[in-house]
Amino acid sequence: MLKPLLVAVIAAFMLSAGCASFSTTPNYALLIKNVDWPLQDLSSLVAYELPTGLRTTSENGREFYSKHFILDGPKYKPAGDAVERYTATVIVLGDSRPYDIEIFVTKEKRVLTGSGFDYAEIGHNVMLARELEYKLRQELSKRREDRNIIDDFRVF
Q1: What ranges do the domains of the chain cover?
Q2: Which residue(s) pair with 118 in the sheet?
Q3: Do β-strands 84-93 and 75-78 pair in parallel, antiparallel, or remain unpaired?
Q4: Which pLDDT tens digit goes with each residue over 128-147?
Q5: Which of 142, 26, 42 is nearest to 97 (CA)?
Q6: Burial letters for 111-128: b for 16+ Cβ neighbours within 10 Å, e otherwise?
Q7: Which of 28, 78, 99, 122 has a 20 to 30 Å separation from 108 between CA atoms?
Q8: How do residues 43-98 score in pLDDT, each as one tens digit?
Q9: Alpha-carbon distance 126 to 137, whole Å?
Q10: Which pLDDT score, from 0 to 100, does residue 142 have?
């Protein structure tokens, strides 16, 4: 009688411990934690740092997608109709400051369809994501000259 109860308690403990360590960030994504910038300034910075510029944002203004690009040596170029192309995605997580920023770069390949061609996701490029993360970290560490002095102080 005691064994089934003991097994159930141990199973419940293991399940709750497993869920507590579960992370929603994919293994190909990089994360910048505790960014204490206003969302509007953060959005401007992300849009400026995306390779080849900003293509679109989500409806809530927290997901940023770069224009499609290719690598030409160390430089980024617009992809056009390239066979393989990349897209950088930056997502601002959290409902208030400090925010977390998730960064990943998706690799796509052109595939033939019945009505022409389309692009299919074939993986992710962590090295390009690290490069974008480095650029963002460099800019985030700089002091903003145009920030309001009141933003530097916290009341509580």
Answers
A1: 26-144
A2: 111
A3: unpaired
A4: 999 999 999 999 988 655 55
A5: 42
A6: eeeeeeeebeeeebbbeb
A7: 99
A8: 999 999 999 999 999 999 999 999 999 999 989 999 988 999 999 999 999 999 99
A9: 16
A10: 82
Length of the chain: 156
With beta carbons less than 8 A apart as the criterion, state whether 74 and 7 touch: no
Model confidence at 26, pLDDT cuts 50, 70, 90, reads: confident
Token pair, residue 39, equals: 């969302």
pTM, rounded to two decimals: 0.76
Query: Domain spanning 26-144 has what CATH number?
Result: 3.30.530
* pLDDT band of 2, cuts 50, 70, 90: low
d(CA 129, CA 90): 10
Largest distance between two CA atoms of the chain = 70
Exposure string over 67-103, b if 16+ CB within 10 A, otherwise e:
bbbbeeeeebeebeebeebbbbbbbbeeeeeebebbb
Please tell me what DSSP assigns to residue 61: S
